[in-house]
Predict the 3D structure of the following.
Amino acid sequence: MPREIYLVKVGMTMTEGMVSEWFIADGQPVSKGDMLYALETEKVNLDVDAEMDGIVKHVVEAGVTLAPGDVVGYIFAADEVIPDDFEGVASTNDTLSTPLPEAMPAPEAPKTSPQPVAASTGAAEQNVASRTEEGRLKASPAARRLAGELGVGIEGVVGTGPDGRIVEADVYAAAKAGSTQPQMTLPPVSAEAVANVSPLARRIAEAKGIDLAQIQGSGPNGKILQADLDQVPTAPTAVKSVAAGPKAGSTVPVRGMRKTIAQRMHQSLQETAQLSMDMAAVMDDAVRLRGQLIKEWEGEAKPTYTDLVIKATAKALVRHPMMNSRFDGAEIALLDEVHMGLAVAVPDGLLVPVIRNAHLLSLKEISIESARLASAARAGTLGLDDFAGGTFTVSALGMYGVNSFTPIINQPQSGIIGINQLYDGVAWESENPVKTTQMNLSLTWDHRVLDGAPAAEFLASVVEFLSEPYRLLL
Amino acid sequence: MKEFDAVVIGGGPGGYAAAIRASQLGLSVALIEREALGGTCLNWGCIPTKSLLHSASLLADIRAADAFGISVEGLSFDLAKMVSQSRSAAAQLSQGVKGLMRKNKVTVFEGHARIVSPGLIAVGDDQISADSIVVATGAVQKGLGSIQIDGKHIWGAREAMTPKRLPKRLLIVGAGAIGVEFACFYRALGSEVTLLEVAEHVLPTEDHEVSALVAEALVSQGMTLRLGQGVQALESQKRGVTAEVGGEQLKFDAAILSVGVEAAIADLGLEELGVEMQSGFITVNDAQMTNVPGIYAIGDVAGAPCLAHKATHEAMIVAESISGGEPHPLQRERIPGCTYGTPQVASIGLREQDAEPEQVKIGRFPLYANGKSVVSGHTEGFVKTIFDRESGALLGAHLVGEGVTELIQGFAVAIGLETTEAELMHTVFPHPTMSEAMQESVLLAFDRPLHL
């Protein structure tokens, strides 16, 4: 019997996808571990390896949109006869009960347990099986690319493919093993070091003190170019357009990421009872603290105001668990972990990667992780794990001079905080006006889950942590 | 009625490339060509003239062979064979394009296309419908007021690249790339060439220093240059032409008009559709769209610079654009240009005469200090690079000398990737190659040359 080639399911939210390219032509032989086809979904592109040796038979052409789990082809054993009129094998299973293959399967029983993804040279030396006699690392191109995307050092991965060759599943396994130890997955590099930036843009940004993490790149794969540096508003009123968008009079097809955003945002507004409120935080101490931390952590991390709000929000969510919850109609599930979604604008839309266990991470760790996620989002190299399981979201529009907005809840979460710009506010010391730096926080929450008073208490806690920011370092 | 997702009008380097790319992106595509696939570039421009210039350059090398220890006797050449060689190169490549159309499942219609309405095209008796129409009809040579190409003694590029006999005295009106290339070809074969240019420089769009070196070289080859002068009158006579230049009456055996091109839009139906034009060329946006929905334009017909590689790049953009992608717009200041005279010229970006001297750093490395140029005997020329003084951005590169047309792409990549002088200095350039002169030019701009 030929073995089915499935359209693999990547991530919980995948509803459709396609074979964007067959790497092995119809009727051609394939070896286990070879790249078989390129999978394209709304969020993720990845290469799928063959699971066995044999002859590939396509039943679906590249470019046809399908549901995950659909059969796209078969692999015949070398000695099997392929019927001329072959169009597929009648399924013996009830299709509904057929388990969907996961894109992140447990690897086929690696002979040794995977090494943690540390950049330790020791791991590389132990992994002699995955090297050729000349010492070259044996890894499939797809595995190498995935390792780059997930930030996994490929030298530390144990290969389970033929002759110990490293295949995609091994990289996933290594990434998972690494993610049980959060400190291991945080790359010890600053945002500037990982961002996709042209040398010229980097040099100008350094000279002018422009924070590249705030810039959206317009070049290939979101690369930041010289022209993109103009995005930085010199004053809140002088905001320029984010990127050279489509021209007036043209039409833009709704598909891919745009389609997903359209569906999810509309659905959120239809299905929940969401409403918004603003509260101002006095940020003078936070501004000072951030300045000190930037100096102190130079070369390691560069905290942004968004990072401060993430930390404050994570602490407030622990104090107000109703806000860190999931409403399913019959029950409200209060979640015991805070996974913070971070809305990142990318050239053709919006991505919301997730900082996992934000309530357990220090401000510095949050800062490093958010920089990594933001630059990976812009570079289009976010891994599957980077999207999963958010429990609350923050969305920042402050860099565009926004003072208040009504963010939309990222379902099934119960709330989202919008981060606005810093502005010069006034505080009164008896009869005297005193200039202070302030920032509004815009909270949207689901009234089905909690009412105005507890929501305001939650937001007041976030404001309290930001106003007394030393508490963010505890 | 035949139906397609996209129809491309014109099979030149813009049109056929757009058809291939659109087909790769999953569209059903037709291409309409009234003459030969490959367009002007391949059949009547870049390709056959490069073949003729290669003949001329071989001839010059053989004449200079004595210096390299090779003696040649009884050297002669056959003009007809040179021409037929150039025609067969063009024919071979045109055949290749035909094969590419088949391979990419592009349906080719032969004939003149007329857009009846958006989405509908007539080709002879055929009616073709398409969601998207790409106009890639190119350009045709311009006359000069009352002076027109007559094919007799007043030649355009087509006549000039298929001469029956060598004109003894040749007038060339216009010293742009085409004029200079023909001047070099005919001079190498022995014609007495007079080159007229109304601007003050030969190759007037190039850096002035490059133009000056080319002018000097042309004069030293024995050409007569008349800069800042136009032709007042030009008439075909029974034998040859008479020309009035600066009040003087001059006689030539033939004249070549090379005073620029205009968009090839005759009888396409664009005017009736209200397609917007500017100075005779179709106006397009960054996605190559015209003001009429569903109608796109690329290449020469969509405006200067009229270069094949600009057309091919716009072809990629238009294919992405009609299939719903968001292409990166073409950056015009980053299009390189090449002229295949003796010496060759290749350039990209900012010219020195357009730069503010205090805002740039300029390196100018002469080829006589480059080892590879010395051994090949082609030491005339230089590599000039212009950097932004503050940021170190490479703003422009201007090369003149034998072989430089194969070098310019290195700088085009550098500018495209936004490298600064630092990356160019850190790059290892192989020895012995002419490319070392590129790096030396960079070093020189920052006052640290090794070989000067």
